Amino acid sequence: MKIYNKLVRDKIPQIIEENGKKSCCHIAEEEEYLEVLKDKINEEVEEFYETPSVEEMADILEVLGALTDYHGFNKDEIEKVRLEKNKKRGAFKNRIILEKVEEL
Fold first, then answer.
1. What does pLDDT average to over the chain?
2. pTM, whole model, 2 decimals?
Protein backbone atom coordinates (compact mmCIF):
# COMPACT_ATOMS: atom_id res chain seq x y z
CA MET A 1 0.00 0.00 0.00
CA LYS A 2 1.26 3.46 -0.91
CA ILE A 3 0.03 6.63 0.89
CA TYR A 4 -0.33 9.80 -1.18
CA ASN A 5 -2.71 12.20 0.58
CA LYS A 6 -2.59 14.69 -2.30
CA LEU A 7 -4.90 16.31 -4.83
CA VAL A 8 -5.20 14.32 -8.05
CA ARG A 9 -6.97 14.84 -11.36
CA ASP A 10 -10.65 13.84 -11.49
CA LYS A 11 -10.19 10.63 -13.46
CA ILE A 12 -7.29 9.19 -11.44
CA PRO A 13 -9.47 6.97 -9.17
CA GLN A 14 -11.13 5.48 -12.27
CA ILE A 15 -7.76 4.90 -13.93
CA ILE A 16 -6.45 3.18 -10.78
CA GLU A 17 -9.45 0.84 -10.75
CA GLU A 18 -9.07 0.10 -14.48
CA ASN A 19 -5.54 -1.03 -13.65
CA GLY A 20 -6.89 -3.58 -11.17
CA LYS A 21 -6.13 -1.63 -8.01
CA LYS A 22 -8.28 -0.06 -5.31
CA SER A 23 -8.03 3.57 -4.22
CA CYS A 24 -9.33 5.33 -1.14
CA CYS A 25 -10.32 8.99 -1.72
CA HIS A 26 -12.43 11.77 -0.25
CA ILE A 27 -13.80 15.07 -1.54
CA ALA A 28 -12.02 18.08 -0.04
CA GLU A 29 -14.02 20.71 1.82
CA GLU A 30 -13.39 24.37 0.93
CA GLU A 31 -10.55 25.04 3.38
CA GLU A 32 -8.76 21.77 2.64
CA TYR A 33 -9.19 22.30 -1.12
CA LEU A 34 -7.37 25.63 -1.04
CA GLU A 35 -4.51 24.11 0.97
CA VAL A 36 -4.11 21.13 -1.37
CA LEU A 37 -4.23 23.45 -4.40
CA LYS A 38 -1.35 25.42 -2.88
CA ASP A 39 0.56 22.18 -2.29
CA LYS A 40 -0.23 21.02 -5.83
CA ILE A 41 1.04 24.19 -7.52
CA ASN A 42 4.31 23.84 -5.60
CA GLU A 43 4.54 20.14 -6.55
CA GLU A 44 3.96 20.88 -10.23
CA VAL A 45 6.47 23.73 -10.30
CA GLU A 46 9.10 21.51 -8.65
CA GLU A 47 8.41 18.80 -11.23
CA PHE A 48 8.84 21.41 -13.99
CA TYR A 49 12.17 22.52 -12.48
CA GLU A 50 13.35 18.89 -12.45
CA THR A 51 12.10 18.07 -15.96
CA PRO A 52 11.06 21.10 -18.03
CA SER A 53 8.50 19.89 -20.55
CA VAL A 54 5.23 20.82 -22.22
CA GLU A 55 3.47 18.20 -20.07
CA GLU A 56 4.74 19.72 -16.82
CA MET A 57 3.82 23.23 -18.00
CA ALA A 58 0.32 21.96 -18.83
CA ASP A 59 0.03 20.59 -15.28
CA ILE A 60 1.00 24.00 -13.85
CA LEU A 61 -1.60 25.70 -16.03
CA GLU A 62 -4.25 23.19 -14.94
CA VAL A 63 -3.63 23.98 -11.27
CA LEU A 64 -3.56 27.73 -12.00
CA GLY A 65 -6.96 27.29 -13.69
CA ALA A 66 -8.30 25.53 -10.58
CA LEU A 67 -6.98 28.33 -8.36
CA THR A 68 -8.55 30.89 -10.70
CA ASP A 69 -11.91 29.13 -10.43
CA TYR A 70 -11.60 28.66 -6.65
CA HIS A 71 -11.10 32.39 -6.10
CA GLY A 72 -13.77 33.30 -8.63
CA PHE A 73 -11.39 35.25 -10.83
CA ASN A 74 -12.32 35.96 -14.41
CA LYS A 75 -9.73 34.62 -16.89
CA ASP A 76 -10.34 37.50 -19.31
CA GLU A 77 -9.80 40.00 -16.50
CA ILE A 78 -6.57 38.26 -15.49
CA GLU A 79 -5.33 38.48 -19.07
CA LYS A 80 -6.31 42.17 -19.23
CA VAL A 81 -4.37 42.92 -16.03
CA ARG A 82 -1.41 40.89 -17.31
CA LEU A 83 -1.32 42.90 -20.53
CA GLU A 84 -1.68 46.22 -18.64
CA LYS A 85 1.23 45.30 -16.36
CA ASN A 86 3.22 44.23 -19.41
CA LYS A 87 2.58 47.59 -21.05
CA LYS A 88 3.42 49.62 -17.91
CA ARG A 89 6.27 47.56 -16.48
CA GLY A 90 7.33 45.22 -19.26
CA ALA A 91 7.63 41.44 -19.32
CA PHE A 92 10.66 39.25 -18.59
CA LYS A 93 11.91 38.86 -22.15
CA ASN A 94 15.03 41.00 -21.72
CA ARG A 95 16.31 38.86 -18.82
CA ILE A 96 17.15 41.91 -16.67
CA ILE A 97 18.55 41.15 -13.21
CA LEU A 98 18.23 44.07 -10.76
CA GLU A 99 21.35 44.02 -8.64
CA LYS A 100 20.84 47.07 -6.44
CA VAL A 101 19.28 50.52 -6.19
CA GLU A 102 21.12 53.49 -4.68
CA GLU A 103 19.60 56.64 -3.27
CA LEU A 104 20.70 59.79 -5.09
1. 97
2. 0.87
